[in-house]
Amino acid sequence: MNADKLTEAAAKGDTERVQFLLENGIAPNAVNRFGRTAIQVMMMGNTRIAQLLLLYGANPNISDSSTGLTPVHDAAREGFLDTVKMLVRNYANTNVRDGRDLLPIDLARENGHKDVIAYLESNNV
């Protein structure tokens, strides 16, 4: 399944493979056998993969059906400021609550990611 190839490459942080697959017509929002898209499973610290997926039309606001988490929730929770910024620049909604009724900034607070908290507060996003 093509979506599985893309999500696997994104999860591994294999930028070259992600680019190759996108250039060869794999849809960025295709769902893998686990019901996830590449932007949901990507290596959150790899902003180049985020950039590629977004460039090819990945939806930055897709939410996990069981947890309600979006990619910006995941990036904020893990403290990946550059990825948070990339997602926000590409219209990720930071005012969406997850299944625990938490915003991305709340997850950053839970995990002590002060730089992410400061960015989300200062940009009022």
Automatic annotation (TrEMBL):
One of its GO terms (cellular component) is nucleus. Keywords: ANK repeat, Protein kinase inhibitor, Repeat. One of its GO terms (molecular function) is cyclin-dependent protein serine/threonine kinase inhibitor activity. It comes from the Eukaryota. ANK repeats lie at residues 67-99. One of its GO terms (biological process) is regulation of G1/S transition of mitotic cell cycle. Gene3D superfamilies: Ankyrin repeat-containing domain. PANTHER family: ANK_REP_REGION DOMAIN-CONTAINING PROTEIN (PTHR24201), CYCLIN-DEPENDENT KINASE 4 INHIBITOR B (PTHR24201:SF8). This is Cyclin-dependent kinase inhibitor 2A-like. The lineage of its organism: Eukaryota, Metazoa, Chordata, Craniata, Vertebrata.
